[in-house]
Amino acid sequence: MPTTLITGATAGIGAAAARAFAGAGWQVVGTGRRADRLEALQAELGDAFTPLLFDITDDAAREQAFDGLPPLDLLINNAGLARGTAPAQEAKLDDWRVMIDTNVSALVAVTHRLLPGLIERRGAIINLSSVAANYPYPGGNVYAGTKAFVRQFTLDLRADLHGTGVRVTSIEPGMVETEFTLVRTGSQEASDKLYAGVEPMTAEDIAATMLWVASLPPHLNINTLELMPVNQSFAGFAVARKG
Question: How far from chain centre, in Å, is Cα 142?
Answer without folding.
Answer: 16
